[in-house]
Design brief:
Structural class: alpha+beta
Number of helices: 20
Shape: elongated
Number of strands: 21
Length: about 625
């Protein structure tokens, strides 16, 4: 790398263009980086969900789950196979070894299920094969509720579907909007058994009348000279009265209509899921972002669109943001970014205190932003996002990326002050002398962090971006120390002269130097004491490490938590809601609770005995107890 330093000192324009290229690529990469709480990690877990309405858990286990388990059990690479059979729903979870490709695992599972499709019961919904995506959790929960009594869930559901959900789904980055607690419009036909017997018709006859007369069919095409007009036969019933007037049969001059044997009611669908926010029924829209997109940008776009949607809502309805999961990400990113900037400033201050020269400090400190911004470009190429892991790596790298520049700079200053060489040749000679040592230091650091990316298990998947991000930052700092640092040193450095800053630094540094020299003299004279102390310190590491609490994530006060509740099999949605309400009543007595949302059957399988209780707390600064 010494040749690079020589070229950059002699050709400052080349060095400037090189650094500008690194900066531009880094800025472009930064603008394309997504923002999330954790890295995008693919975990090879495949879920097979099958519905058989009306079947008991025992029937689902025997007729569906066992057969699917037997079919997929022959796939290679399976680490764990679990299943859950509930009323009308079978769920088989296949966890593969981490080396297994997720897409190939899904295809193999589909192929195996297709082989046993003929053995499954009739009336079964086709099995749905999906993969577990850690990034597919909802980023925003939005609720539509009534401002005053009289507004039904059906009205709320219709407004939520037509005016809110469809507007949100068109936003770039939104992957899915699931409606929880809605009740759609439904026309119910309540048959009169006595009238059916008297007219000698069956419910099947009523169904046939509906199917044959409530439909829209193509009518062909009409050629009119230069034009071709497509025709269709509009046969759909538009009103409730129209359903009553549909003909079941016409015999001997008498017409029998549906209204003669049944009552047609404009009603709402059966309970599919339920949602209650602070004791009030509400229609909740759970918004999931697309994988790899910027969570904060997506949520900001949704909130901006919601402001527009609110002006189109009826006066008796209110749109509220129930839970914004981007707030945690914003807080984490802001905190780490603050530490990143503060760490850079403190590193520059320490350099100033020890070098005692503003120009030297500027040359060394400029390596920090250049190295960090350059790392953004490499992160973008690797497909990483700005998350807690990568930002932690960047915050740690702040104190490391300046090391190479300081070593090169200090050697250049030594050539200028001690050997009385002019700055221009000193920059070349000093960099050449120290080049191999700087490269060895950088490569040793990369050798430490790159193996982190190869740690096994799920933790290794998360730490992969940490190891590579650190290696990227150290690698860019090496290029900066051999290009920008010697080029600026050749033109900005001057022979050292004593001034007030130098005297202040000496006054601060001399006592530290004297203390260090005294400790060094003591250590050299009593080497056995140092050896015993080192052995004791090393031996205490194992028991201390065992006594420390362990966990995948540190404890964090997010001002929110959730409780999962599962009632006995066969429990209805209303009964599950009642049980959840009792649990929520106890939670409301906890100090600091601000809002509680209860959902029933919010999962894709619409499990009626499954409930989630989302609890929001007030700001941690405003309460005495932690989460």
């Amino acid at each position: 790398m010494q040749w690079l330093a020589q070229i950059c000192v002699r050709r400052p324009v080349f060095a400037s263009v090189l650094i500008l290229t690194i900066m531009v690529l880094g800025i472009v990469g930064y603008r394309g980086l997504g923002v999330d709480q954790f890295p995008n990690v693919e975990i090879p877990i495949v879920v097979v969900t099958t519905r058989l309405d009306g079947a008991s858990p025992e029937e689902v286990e025997l007729d569906v789950t066992d057969k699917i388990e037997g079919a997929v059990n022959t796939i290679s690479g399976i680490d764990e196979l679990t299943s859950t059979s509930s009323e009308g729903v079978s769920q088989v979870v296949i966890a593969f070894k981490l080396e297994k490709n997720v897409e190939s695992a899904i295809n193999e599972v589909r192929d195996k299920i297709n082989l046993v499709t003929q053995e499954l019961p009739k009336g079964l919904d086709p099995p749905v094969v999906t993969k577990i995506d850690p990034g597919a959790s909802p980023v925003l929960l939005v609720g539509l509720r009534a401002k005053r009594p009289g507004t039904t869930l059906r009205d709320l559901s219709e407004t939520a579907d037509k005016k809110v959900r469809r507007q949100i789904e068109t936003i770039n980055g939104v992957g899915k909007v699931a409606v929880i607690g809605g009740r759609d419009r439904q026309i119910n036909i309540l048959m009169n058994p006595t009238a059916l017997r008297a007219e000698k018709v069956t419910p099947i006859d009523v169904l046939r009348a509906l199917q044959s007369q409530n439909m829209m069919t193509p009518g062909g095409a009409l050629e009119t000279g230069p034009q071709s007009i497509t025709l269709k036969i509009e046969g759909r019933v538009a009103t409730v009265d129209g359903v009553s007037r549909l003909v079941i049969r016409a015999q001997e001059g008498r017409v029998l209509r549906i209204g003669d044997v049944a009552k047609v009611v404009d009603s709402q669908s059966d309970v599919d899921s339920l949602a209650r926010y602070d004791g009030q029924d509400v229609v909740v829209m759970s918004i999931v972002k697309q994988s790899g997109t910027n969570t904060i940008e997506v949520v900001d776009s949704i909130l901006k669109r919601l402001d527009t949607v609110r002006s189109t809502l009826p006066g008796d309805m209110e749109l509220v943001v129930i839970r914004d999961n981007s707030q945690t990400i914003r807080t984490s990113v802001h905190s780490v970014t603050e530490h990143l900037v503060l760490g850079g400033l403190l590193a520059a201050l320490v350099v100033l205190l020890f070098l005692g020269n503003v120009r030297s400090t500027l040359i060394a400190a400029i390596a920090i932003p250049v190295s960090i911004v350059g790392t953004f470009g490499l992160m973008y190429v690797q497909g990483y996002t700005l998350n807690n892991i990568t930002l932690l790596a960047l915050a740690l790298a702040v104190g490391i990326v300046i090391d190479d520049a300081i070593v090169v700079l200090e050697n250049i200053i030594r050539f200028i002050d001690e050997k009385k060489i002019k700055p221009f040749p000193a920059s070349i000679l000093a960099t050449k002398e120290i080049g191999l040592a700087v490269m060895a230091t950088t490569l040793s650091l990369m050798a430490v962090f790159i193996p982190v990316a190869f740690i096994g298990g799920i933790p290794g998947r998360f730490l992969k971006s940490f190891g590579y991000t650190m290696a990227f930052a150290v690698g860019v700092s090496l290029v900066v120390s051999f290009s920008l640092t010697p080029m600026m040193s050749a033109r900005l450095l001057r022979p050292h002269t004593e001034n007030w800053l130098t005297r202040a630094v000496n006054a601060f540094y001399k006592p530290i130097e004297r203390t260090y020299m005294a400790m060094l003299g003591f250590s050299l004279k009593r080497r056995w004491v140092i050896m015993v102390a080192c052995a004791a310190s090393l031996g205490s590491c194992v028991p201390i490490a065992k006594s420390l609490p362990s966990g995948f994530l540190p404890l964090d006060d997010k001002a929110k938590f959730q409780v999962t509740l599962r009632a006995p099999e066969g429990t209805s949605s209303e009964a599950t809601l009642l049980i959840a309400e009792r649990a929520a009543a106890e939670l409301r007595h906890l100090p600091g609770v601000s809002h509680i949302l209860i959902t029933v059957a919010e999962d894709d399988q619409k499990t009626r005995n499954y409930s989630q209780i989302y609890v929001d707390l007030i700001d941690p600064k405003a309460r005495e107890e932690s989460q």
